Request: fold
Amino acid sequence: MEEQFSTLYNVPRLIATESMSSWITRLALSQGTSMTTILRYLEISKTDDVDRIIGRQKIKHISKKSGMPIGDFKGIRTIFKSLISIDPSGRNFLLFSDKKSRYRFCPVCLKKDDVPYFRVEWRFNVWRSCPDHRCLLEDECNNCKHPVTLPTDMLRGGLKCSGIGTLAMCANCGEWITKVKPAYHDFSDSQSLDTEDTLLIQNGKAFLSALYFEFFNIDGFKKTYITKDLLRLHKKNIFPWNNFKWTAKLWRGEIS
Reply:
C-alpha cells in the first residue's frame, strides 16, 4: 500500500529563481515550526547541503509532502544536477561559511521583493554582481558583519532569538540587511570596472547558463564548450574568478 503523507497548509510557492535553502527556510516559517522539524519531515538530513541535495535526491516525496508541483523544482534541479556531475562536493564553485551554505545578496532585490527571497545564483562564488540593478553583491550583514547562511530558523533568528519575519532581516542580529548603500558600479564617477572585471562578471553569468543549458561560450573565446569542460577549464585557470578585485565594501571605500 502506498504511504500517505499529511498535507501542509499555506505552503509558499517556490519562486522561479529561488534557491532550495531559501524556500525551505520560508516553508518552516509558514508552518510555525523549527528548521529541524521541517527537514525531518522532508527526510533531509541536517548535515546535508540543502541546495545540492536537490540535484541528487529524488524529489517526488518532497513534492508530495509539501504539495508543491514537481515541475516547480525543475530549474534548480537542473542546475545542481549539472554542478554535481562536475563538482560533487561543490567546493570549487559554491560559497561556504565553515560547513554552512553561504550566500551573497543584492540589497536592492531584497528591498523591492514583495516576498524577499534568496536567488539560486547568489550561492555561487562566480556571481558577483546583480544584473538587474548593476551593483556588487553584499558579502555580509552591514550591521553585525555576519555572513548570511541558509537554511536558517527564522522563528529563533535575530537578537535574543526573538525571531525574524522576512529573509530581508539578518538571522544573527535581526537588523535589515537591506540597510546598506548599494555598490552601484555603473554609476560611479570616481572608479569603474576594468575589462577583466567586466569579463569575469559576464563569464560568471555564462557559468550559471552553462549549468542550466549544458553548453556555454566564454567571452573572448570563439569555441563552444559543454558542461563537463567547466571543471577542467576552472583548474586550468581559464576563468580567473578569484582575480575579481572588488567587494561591495571596497567599492564604497569602507576598506582599503
Observations:
- The chain has a mean pLDDT of 88.
- The beta strands are 96-97, 100-103, 129-130, 135-136, 148-149, 183-184, 215-217, 224-226.
- Residues 20-86 form one domain.
- The two ends are 65 Å apart (CA to CA).
